Amino acid sequence: MWCEIQDVTIISMMQKEIIIDYYALLREHRGCDSELWQTEAVTVEALYEELHACYSFPIHRDYLKVAVNDALTGWGHALSDKDRVVFICPVAGG
Amino acid sequence: MRFLTKTVWCLFARWPEDNMFLMTCNPIVPETLKKEVANEAAGGFCSFEGWVRNHNHGRRVTGLFYEAYAPLAQHEVTAIMAEASQQWAVLHIACAHRIGTLSLTDIAVWVGVSSVHRKEAFLACQYVIDNVKHRVPIWKKEYYEDGTTEWVHCARCAEPPPSSLT
Asked: How far apart are CA A27 and CA A35, in angstroms?
């Protein structure tokens, strides 16, 4: 059991390829609507910090929501290889 | 460009039992959508239309651009309509949201509800539009008379919100 837990941790820290889709203000700021990102980030939060360090997003994290594979989730969500992530700016439909 | 591919499409989803959601680049036609909620058992019908107006917070608006995260938008609208159906005894709910570039007086969003009695139609209609506005991942960019643009609700979000500073 302990070995299984350790294996999961190691796998989580392995290199992953994440698909990041951008919308609205983040799309304009980034200059593209999607990109592939290689990362060892374990959580969505860690991924965001990596991206923010590179791109200096114009929206503070506290205003963002996050979706992984088209489902809303929390910042502690554990990433898997080939996950599709969207950081959601404040919405304004209607 | 992938962005154009993402935006130049229409999304239509219907659930056989009650509700319909349409996301479209084309002009919204209320009379067509009204038929989606028609029911001989309905004594009440309520609809809401969101129009593109020429002003917002003291600025002269010349047009809008809407962008949507389609899969999650569909999921959220589905959930909103289901919640409304659970709270009030309605027969059908239909919702349509336009994306892409809109001009003044265009219909940006349409919600229609049919029910046996009018009270439920009023309440469910308001619930749907109120929740579409603050839950669904659709973004609005305003174009102003002075040539500037702004993504609504995103302009002053670079700093942490005031509540997080305490």
From this structure: 10
